[in-house]
Amino acid sequence: MASVITMPAIIADASSALLAAWHKQPGDTVQAGEPLAEIETEKATVDYESEASGILAQLLVAAGEDVAVGAPIAVLTQETDSEEQVAAALAQAGLGAQPVTITPEAAAPVAVQRTFSSPLARRMAREHQIDLAQLQGSGPSGRIVRSDVEKAIAAAAPVSSPAPVQLAVAGPASVAASAAAELPAGATRVELTRMRKAIARRLSESKSTVPHFYLSQDIEVDALLALRQQLKAASPARITVNDLILKAVAHALIEVPAANACWNEDSITQFSTADISVAIATDTGLVTPVLRGAQAMSLGTVSSTVADFSARAKSNNLSPAELAGGSFTVSNLGMFGTQQFTAILNPPQAGILAVGAATQRPVARDGQLQVATVMTCTLSADHRVMDGAVAAQLLAAIQRNLEQPLSLLV
User: Fold this and answer.
1) Rounded CA separation 62/19 (Å)
2) Where are the beta strands (DSSP E) in 16-77?
3) Looking at 23, 212, 251, 383, which residue is catalytic?
4) Are 229 and 371 in contact (CB under 8 A)?
5) Between the CA of residue 201 and those of 240, 271, 327, what are the distances in Å?
6) I need a surface site. Which of 162, 249, 273, 358 has the fewest CB within 10 A?
7) What is the pLDDT of residue 199?
């Protein structure tokens, strides 16, 4: 039976998502479980798989449109569907029971005798008092999209308006052209992705609204590096220093449960497991897949899971479920040679550990100057969740676990 496909809720509490690209076109046969569209959320770009098999009869949303969750995006039909069945499916989705035309033998797209508009276009038209009935849509099947409304807004602007006002309502293309004209020679304008906008918004909110405080500790890691060499020789798994750090942090969070917590405005949630967000840099931005129950994982499992996260992060193949939640974050820039840095909290988490490079440094022991391999770790903490003493206990536990690494094997 004919059905209308709606925009799924890819991530919890999302009100909309960007339909980045269609993998199928009208008239194509679609199998259940087959990628239908590429959807971009604030955290990742994922493939949306069709929940049913059929013929993709019509696209109701153009690629590049921001679509409200639950809004219709396409029509899926069967070869045996009648015009009445398709019309009924459209009516049930709130699109109106308008006459449709189907050519079963050719699996042709459904032609709905109605002009549709995207949610964003309707909102813009309402804000600028534009009559959608007077517009000619440029989207699929004549659908009115954002650019159509922007053109109408620009055309309606008073001729005598000053240049800055005209620029503000002229639309993205005109704004981009004007901005590009002002760039110095050789400079390039890079448009913000949805993920970069989300990173900017969330971290700006975090830095301006969360009372951060910071504690740093130099940690000697010669014993840790020696253990890693032993594991490298004895285990088929490629255990990295970062894997050992994640395991040390997981144990510390269980040892200091008051630090393994999140802020909820009117309460604090304390976790019984160490669900650690692992910061991974990609070409499109920073992602933080969650290592769940890390305190109970073997080092081999930690290693293979993080390696899998890293590989799939670079190809945008992490699922929203893998990016959701987490009670603490570890951000390691040591592999880039950064010796020390402070990180911004990822709300509602109350802690993030910034890990620097392990370098040989002079240390004093019993009045004697010696050389040791030292790594500086800086803990950023939310003062609403933990006081200085709790944060210090957590950092001390991390230091103890790293300087006595055999504890990580039990």
Assistant:
1) 8
2) 16-22, 29-30, 35-40, 45-49, 54-59, 65-68, 72-77
3) 383
4) no
5) 32, 26, 20
6) 162
7) 83
Q: Say how many Å lie between the first and final Cα of the chain, rounded.
A: 57
Query: Of 17, 8, 7, 14, whose CA–CA distance to 324 is shortest?
Result: 14
CA distances for 127 relative to 67, 120, 149, angstroms: 18, 11, 11
Q: How high is the pLDDT of residue 340?
A: 95
**What is the DSSP code (8-state) at residue 117?**
B
Nearest Cα residue to 358 out of 218, 214, 252: 218
374 neighbors 368 (Cβ within 8 angstroms) = no
At residue 51's C-alpha, the angle toward residues 45 and 53, to 5°, is: 120
- From 187, 152, 150, select the one nearest 172 (Cα to Cα): 150
Is residue 175 within 8 Å of residue 158, measured between CB atoms?
no
What Å distances lie between residue 312 and 32, 142, 194, 226, 242, CA to CA?
23, 37, 19, 30, 18
Q: How far apart are CA 156 and CA 153, in angstroms?
A: 5
The residues, ordered by sequence, that sit 6+ positions from 354 with a Cβ below 8 Å of its Cβ are 331, 333, 340, 341, 342, 343, 377, 378, 379, 380
Q: What is the mean pLDDT of each run of 10 residues along the chain (410 residues)?
A: 83 74 90 88 78 89 86 88 76 58 40 52 74 77 75 70 42 50 82 81 90 96 94 86 96 96 92 95 86 94 94 84 90 94 93 96 93 97 96 97 91
Please report the pLDDT score of residue 225 as a whole number: 95
Alpha carbons 109 and 134: distance in angstroms, whole number = 25
Task: Return the closest-CA partner of residue 111 out of 61, 75, 71.
Answer: 75
**Is 128 one of the catalytic residues?**
no
Q: Give the C-alpha separation, 101 to 76, whole Å.
A: 14
Q: What is the pLDDT of residue 229?
A: 92
210 secondary structure, DSSP code: S
